[in-house]
Amino acid sequence: MHEVYESTRNRDRKITSKQAIFEGISPDGGLYVWPELAQVQLDLTTICKQSYQENAVYILHHLLPDFTKEELEQCVANAYGNTFSSPDITPLRKVGDVYVLELFHGPTSAFKDVALTLLPQLMSVALRSAHQKALILTATSGDTGKAALAGFQDVKDTGIVVFYPDHKVSQVQYRQMVTQRGKNVKVYGVKGNFDDAQSKVKELFLDPDLREVAAKYHVRLTSANSINIGRLVPQIVYYFEAYKQLVNQGVIQLGDKISYSVPTGNFGDVLAGYYGYLMGLPVEKFYVASNANHVLTDFLTTGIYDRNREFIQTISPSMDILISSNLERLLYYVSNCDADFVKGCMDELAQTGKYQIPADLLKKIQSLFDCGYIDDVQTKAVIGKTYQETNEILDPHSAIGYEIGKAAKERPMVTLATASPYKFAQDVLDAIGVKEADPMQAMKKLEDYAHEKTPKGLAELNDLPILHKDVISIDDMKQDVANYIEELFHD
Ligand SMILES: N[C@@H](CCOP(=O)(O)O)C(=O)O
């Protein structure tokens, strides 16, 4: 009765949420989804009275029905006990005439922490049920990598390998990853971009040779990216949390609709909001905010998804993505769970790099989703102007969401601040007219302008030795993963 998850590309096989978390991705290449999600309706009155932690348990209990309440309470307590610097976990602050939801108060200063402090807990429970071990393969464009490393560091019966695009993440993001300690962690720079790394990782999950090597040690290859449902579900909580805070501050009445502006590349963050909407969150519009890699803006405007374009390296590297994996889940829901349609689109994307959806489907998507993008020059201008007008310092990703949200007509508008400005200190300083070439010095200088000091995990980076120096080709990834399985899990 708990086998409620299925693949976006094939409706035949049903599995539990523990299996879905443990597997990460379906054997047919699809992503795990719960077709009856919209029948799960959450009670807003309850949510508005509860703490963040209580809401996390409440929401997770609905979405992961084979986890017991006690298991979830323990997971949530371990994840959010004392790891976040804000007691609210994700505080909401008014900046100008929009509300900024600060998602970067976790251990690695990015929104990924909200889910990646919790996923290792959920994974451990799932592993115990399956009597297995897991090797987590993670592709990152900057933020997921460090958050996943920190979350899975020395977690029993797990190992983690992170692939970041060499020279395509910020200096601080790079240092965060290559200084990672732990007996079960491995970090590689790859010669390529995020899309190359993520596509290869997806291939490796299903690679028969690797699966055989892993099976020898009762190890399963799985994911810490938002393709894993266990990564996505914890992100739903902060959408409700923002709503709760607006109700409790008297800005809205229970039941009023609000809008969200979400800077996103892989479409996971905004999809979490959409899941909230399906479960009863009153939403007017979701604004999908992009940088110069505006494949999503083009899709939401024309219905044509086309990744055949130049990959642009920007000052918002975490969003430098042209294959937005989680769009697949949106297509599944808006097409009324038409797995054949989704498979057709994904096959076309793999073969030609593009696909087009029918006009009626586009219309349906546009009734809830709007979009916009700005480039680096505009992003810096937004950071500078926002600082002058409001005294707030935004990181480049948050600045993109802020600008798209500010330009929209809907109010109240909640815009997601996805990373600490300290992770991008040089570019942020530059945007407010201060030059500093050294990343550590830049963080120090930024303290003169920001409200808060450099987060502890970033301030200590200069003193940590570089432990991971390997830069490999995309073709080497398979062999390196195979070697690491042998090294880590061989008794
Ligand atoms: N923006 C990510 C890229 C991967 O996205 P995810 O949400 O699927 O993990 C990053 O910063 O690494």
Question: Widest sheet: strand order?
Answer: 4-5-15-10-11-14
Q: CA-to-CA gap between the ends?
A: 37 Å
CATH topology of the domain at 92-109 and 230-456: Rossmann fold
SS summary, helix count: 22
The residue-averaged pLDDT reads: 97
What quaternary form is this? single chain
Count of DSSP E strands? 16
Low-confidence stretches: none
CATH class category label of the domain at 92-109 and 230-456? Alpha Beta
Q: How many strands, what sense, and barrel or not for the largest sheet?
A: 6 strands, mixed
Could you name the key traits of this structure?
single chain; 491 residues; alpha/beta; Rossmann fold; five-stranded parallel sheet; 16 strands; 45% helix; binds ligand LJ64HWYM
Layout: helices, strands, pairs:
Blueprint lengths: L4 E3 L2 E6 L1 H7 L8 E2 L10 H6 L2 H12 L5 H12 L11 E4 L2 E5 L9 H5 L2 H12 L2 E7 L4 H9 L5 E8 L5 H8 L6 E7 L2 H12 L2 H9 L2 E5 L5 H20 L9 E6 L4 H11 L4 E8 L4 H8 L1 E3 L20 H8 L4 H14 L1 E3 L2 H8 L2 E5 L2 H15 L5 H12 L5 E5 L7 H7 L7 H8 L9 H4 L11 E3 L3 H13 L2
Parallel strand pairs: 5-15, 6-7, 6-9, 7-8, 8-16, 10-11, 10-15, 11-14
Antiparallel strand pairs: 1-2, 1-3, 4-5, 12-13
Helix pairs in contact: 1-6, 3-4, 3-11, 11-12, 17-18, 17-19, 19-20
Bound molecules: the ligand N[C@@H](CCOP(=O)(O)O)C(=O)O.
Cofactor: pyridoxal 5'-phosphate
Family: Belongs to the threonine synthase family.
Catalytic activity: O-phospho-L-homoserine + H2O = L-threonine + phosphate
